[in-house]
Amino acid sequence: MSARDSLLHRRVFVLPAGNLEEAGSVSGDVRRELTAMGVEQDIIRRAGVVCFEGEMNIAMYSQGGRIILLVADDRVELLFSDRGPGIPDIELARTPGYSTAPDWAREMGFGAGMGIPNMERQSDRLEIRSRLDGGTVIRAVFKRGAE
Amino acid sequence: MNIDLKLEDVARLTEAQVLTGEDQLGRQVTQACAADLLSDVLALVQDEGVLLVTGSMAPQVLRVAEVLGLGGLLFVRGKRPNQSMCDYARDAGLPILMTDLSMFEACGVLYSEGVSGAQRKRFPRDNVR
User: Fold this and answer.
1) Which ranges in chain B belong to alpha helices (H)?
2) Å from A78 to nearest chain B CA?
3) What is the per-residue pLDDT across B39-83, written as a single tens digit (0 to 9) for each?
4) Do B125 and A49 lie within an 8 Å CB cutoff?
5) What residues contact residue B71 under an 8 Å CB cut-off, 6+ apart?
6) How many angstroms separate the CA atoms of A93 and A89, rounded?
7) Which domains are assigned to chain B?
8) Is B81 helix (H, G, I), strand (E, B) or coil?
9) Residues in contact with A64: Cβ distance below 8 Å, sequence separation at least 6, in sequence order
10) CA-CA distance, B31 to A72, in Å (whole number)?
11) Number of H helices, E strands in chain B
């Protein structure tokens, strides 16, 4: 966030480790908050999906993390950060169909290797930074008024 | 193609039980998506109000439905969502139907009524890579 003064809303969601039952609930909150703020419908949808994928990734792979929602005049941002194993090969993780999801996640219908590709598709910009045995930070940007 | 098909028609044609959302059976159904893999549903569905045909019993199916703004859920193969899932759906205003038909048969019924497959639209970054 460069222009702090344009920031309209900031919200931090803390995700405890291994909270599978609740995984996906932040995306519902994000959707409701963006709706209440009158954000464009298209962005609400895309941000909701990106948030869901990010939450599932944090639930599947990390020891917990957090999601920060930022709303500004010109954009919406979602910042995901976790404590975890990190992503050894980000290019590989961006490949549709590539997945290292655990069996329990696959049994729930996830782990199709579409998480990061889908986050990239649905956002206007996606930045991934990861440190092995440290954690991963993902920033997703949605530009407002770009329709 | 414009069709006039409501959730109540879907329930009748698939001989489905209505588990939640009895007050929303007037919702129009024009597009459907059939999958057990929730990752695919998330990647595919773009429009609001799509009917999801699924056999997935993961609680996350409801969160996916919420985040995508689905019009309703049709559980196939006689899979019955548990009470907590039904409670959640009721709170979220999501209609749930349950049919004994297989996914293939349920899709066939919907298709023959003119329901189209949910189409993925272009995303902003489709040309980036």
Assistant:
1) 7-13, 38-44, 60-68, 83-92, 103-112
2) 15
3) 889 888 888 899 999 999 988 899 999 999 999 999 999 999 999
4) no
5) B7, B27, B28, B29, B48, B49, B50, B51, B95
6) 6
7) 7-117 (3.40.1390.20)
8) coil
9) A14, A15, A16, A17, A18, A19, A58, A82, A83
10) 33
11) 5, 6
* Cα–Cα distance, B14 to B101 (Å, whole number): 7
DSSP letters of A21-50?
TTTTHHHHHHHHHHHHTT--HHHHHHHHHH
Residue A111 makes CB contacts below 8 A (sequence gap 6+) with A60, A99, A101, A102, A105, B39
Helix (H, G, I), strand (E, B) or coil at B98: strand
Please tell me the distance in Å from A137's CA to the nearest CA on chain B. Answer: 20
Q: At the topology level of CATH, where does A4-143 sit? A: Heat Shock Protein 90 (3.30.565)
Q: Where are the domains of chain A?
A: 4-143
Return d(Cα B73, Cα B64) in angstroms, integer. Answer: 11
- For chain A, say whether B36 makes contact (Cβ under 8 Å): yes
Q: What's the rounded Cα separation, in Å, for the pair B129 and B122? A: 14
Q: B67 vs A48: CB contact, 8 Å cut-off?
A: yes
pLDDT digits (tens, 9 = 90+) for A75-123: 999 999 999 999 999 999 999 889 998 888 888 888 888 889 999 999 9
Minimum CA–CA partner of A143 in chain B: B124
Rounded Cα–Cα distance for residues A111 and B58 (Å) = 13
Q: Interhelix angle for A41-61 vs B60-68, to 10°?
A: 160
ipTM of the assembly?
0.78
B63 close contact with A: CB closer than 8 A: yes
